[in-house]
Amino acid sequence: MGITKHRECRVCGSEDPITLHNLWYRGMYGQLCTACVLAHHPASFCPICFDVYDDTKLPPPHLRVMCLRCPSVAHLSCVYSLPSSSSSSSSTSFHCPQCSIPNFTFFNLNGGIIQKGNVITKDLAKQLVAAAKIASMSLHKAAAIARENAEKRATEAVMARKRAKEALDKVAFLMLKEAEEDSRSSSNL
Ligand SMILES: [Zn+2]
Ligand SMILES: [Zn+2]
Ligand SMILES: [Zn+2]
């Protein structure tokens, strides 16, 4: 129950095994394809060079720029390196690719699936790596939380066992007392 043998992206249903990543997403363990991992973690990577940020290692404020419409964060230097049409504006008016390009999808292969004939460009490879890193970060985080919970549960289990033993001891004591009283009353006859 619960575990489906069938592997597919939980968001878009893609079945391409090469681009699927195991991760915790919205409190559930499952698979997301590369495009959906990137699309749903806009604050975790630069959408231009596909460097992944650790939670604690966002670029410093003077070297980063946030998308005006979503939580996407890009390197300021990457934004400046874009072709001139959009970079003439100041750093305050950045729109990430998802928010500025109609019908944009990350990891955009023809047909959406890696096949023998497809060439994985350097850009696509970077996106695949970025998604894999984001997925692994989510698993590490979940593992840390699970460890904490496991310790808590272990302590609770010890306490519960102790309480159970105390209850058993009490019952045993009462039974013994009862038996003593029985034998006393019968010997008095
Ligand atoms: Zn997907
Ligand atoms: Zn960048
Ligand atoms: Zn955006």
How much helix, percentage-wise, in residues? 40-55%
Number of strands: 4
Count of individual helical segments:
5
Summarize model confidence as the mean pLDDT: 84
Radius of gyration: 29 Å
> Approximately how much beta-strand content do the residues carry?
5-15%
Biggest beta sheet summary = 2 strands, antiparallel
Q: Write the element-wise H/E pattern from the N-terminal end onward.
A: EEHEEHHHH
| CA distance, first residue to last residue | 64 Å
List the strand order in the largest sheet: 1-2
Q: Any ligands, ions or cofactors bound here, and which?
A: zinc ion
Residue windows where pLDDT falls under 50 for at least 5 positions: none
Shape: elongated
Structural class: mainly alpha
What does this structure look like?
One of its GO terms (molecular function) is zinc ion binding. Helix content is 45%, strand content 10%. The protein is mainly alpha-helical. The chain has a domain at 20-144. Strand 3 (64-66) and strand 4 (73-75) form a beta hairpin. The longest helix is centred in the C-terminal third of the chain and has 66 residues, at 122-187. It starts with 19 loop residues before the first strand and ends with a helix. The model has no long low-confidence stretch (mean pLDDT 84). It binds zinc ion (3 copies). Residues 9, 11-12, 14, 32-33, 35-36 line the site of one zinc ion.
